[in-house]
């Protein structure tokens, strides 16, 4: 925890120094943007931790064999590595896991500071009769969520990479990105007096639908990764030389079970891993097509064109890295970038939702009341 606090001091001092003459709202906005950036980096490092099989590099929590760092646990790590040289516990994997925990703690400290500063500033403004800061409900919700996310991080280790827990931990990290993104947009709107962009009701519904399906697709991708099902299909566009390979959906999508096992304790079948992979692939075509349509529709709104270009670039990245994972035998760089692209899409779509509103002129008109429909008093 002390390591996380020390790491958090760097960003805090940098924001204070760079914006020491700025308004409280501007300083808060800068800290929120920086926290969003560092949280995105944390999500990437979490993917790196998972993909390098370092999630159990220190098999206890919050320390490493009861120590604050792998240095104090070197004897335990050496014994575990000698017993199983390619196992989950090595000196390198222990450092990767503990650095991830230090970074996560520092992000938690930054979010705690955001919540405290928001509450103090808002109460001071309200006491002086000013409205210099927004109501601090979003920072408070983010603080609650990061505590929940920390609990899932602990369960990831103590439950030995339980697939459902690891997938929820990934989704929780992306939800944290969305919460911070909303705060960045809201603070910019509040400070600049900028109203949300009015867009057609149909486009607004498409935006929400795309976001919902993106979350579902990310959950499916997390399920592929946490079950190590990426290499169940090593060809494209077919899988195992077939358009519809042998698949066991019941085993594959049995959610509450240990890694590599069924709910009955048996080893999971290869056909179950194939089902996990292939469902994610089929859903990818649907989501990519929908996001392509969304990017095209948003490009017709002048104020949303930059976001539409980001969406187009990111779905291209996701397609390229997804194919690389299959045909290039799951390269580490492509796999980490695939997670990063998903996180960036969450930020961009959240930004689009927070920065827009439904144009009331495009809402469905209410049918006028007729004499036949009136109920007599």
Would you give an account of this structure?
This protein is 66% helix and 2% strand. Strands 1-2 form a two-stranded parallel sheet. With 377 residues, the chain is mainly α.
List the keywords.
two-stranded parallel ribbon; 11 helices; 377 residues
Gap between N and C termini, in Å?
A: 69 Å
Structural class: mainly alpha
Q: Please trace the helix and strand order, writing H or E for each element.
A: HHHHHHEHHHHHE
Gross geometry: flat
The main β sheet shows up as:
2 strands, parallel
Count the DSSP helices: 11
Put the structure in a nutshell.
With 377 residues, the protein is mostly helical. 66% of the residues lie in helices and 2% in strands. The chain is built from eleven helices and two strands.
Helices and strands in order, then pairings?
Blueprint: H1 2-18, H2 24-51, H3 74-83, H4 91-127, H5 137-158, H6 163-192, E1 197-199, H7 201-226, H8 249-252, H9 270-298, H10 305-327, H11 332-354, E2 356-358
Parallel strand pairs: 1-2
């Amino acid at each position: 925890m002390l390591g996380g606090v020390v790491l958090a001091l760097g960003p805090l001092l940098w924001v204070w120094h760079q914006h020491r003459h700025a308004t409280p709202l501007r300083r808060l906005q800068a800290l929120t943007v920086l926290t969003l950036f560092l949280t995105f980096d944390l999500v990437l490092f979490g993917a790196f931790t998972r993909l390098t099989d370092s999630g159990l590099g220190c098999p206890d929590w919050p320390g490493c064999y009861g120590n604050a760092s792998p240095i104090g646990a070197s004897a335990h790590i050496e014994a575990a590595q000698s017993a199983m040289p390619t196992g989950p516990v090595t000196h390198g994997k222990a450092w990767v896991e503990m650095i991830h925990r230090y970074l996560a703690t520092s992000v938690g400290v930054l979010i705690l500071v955001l919540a405290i500063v928001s509450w103090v500033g808002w109460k001071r403004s309200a006491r002086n009769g000013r409205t210099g800061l927004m109501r601090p409900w979003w920072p408070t919700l983010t603080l609650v969520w990061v505590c929940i996310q920390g609990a899932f991080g602990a369960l990831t280790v103590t439950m030995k990479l339980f697939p459902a827990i690891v997938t929820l931990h990934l989704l929780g990290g992306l939800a944290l990105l969305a919460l911070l993104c909303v705060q960045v947009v809201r603070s910019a709107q509040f400070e600049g007096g900028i109203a949300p962009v009015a867009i057609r009701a149909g486009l607004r519904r498409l935006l929400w639908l795309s976001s919902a399906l993106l979350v579902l697709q990310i959950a499916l991708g997390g399920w592929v990764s946490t079950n190590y099902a990426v290499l169940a299909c090593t060809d494209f566009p077919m899988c195992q030389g077939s358009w519809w390979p042998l698949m066991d959906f019941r085993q594959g999508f049995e959610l509450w079970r240990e890694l590599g096992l069924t709910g009955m304790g048996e080893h999971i079948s290869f056909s179950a891993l194939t089902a996990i992979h292939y469902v994610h692939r089929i859903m990818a075509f649907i989501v990519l097509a929908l996001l392509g349509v969304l990017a095209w529709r948003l490009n017709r709104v002048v104020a949303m064109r930059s976001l539409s270009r980001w969406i187009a670039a990111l779905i291209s990245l996701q397609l390229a890295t997804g194919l690389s994972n299959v045909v290039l035998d799951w390269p580490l760089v492509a796999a980490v970038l695939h997670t990063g692209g998903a996180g960036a899409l969450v930020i961009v779509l959240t930004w689009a939702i927070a920065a827009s509103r439904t144009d009331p002129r495009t809402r469905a008109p209410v049918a006028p009341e007729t004499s036949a429909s009136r109920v007599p008093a």
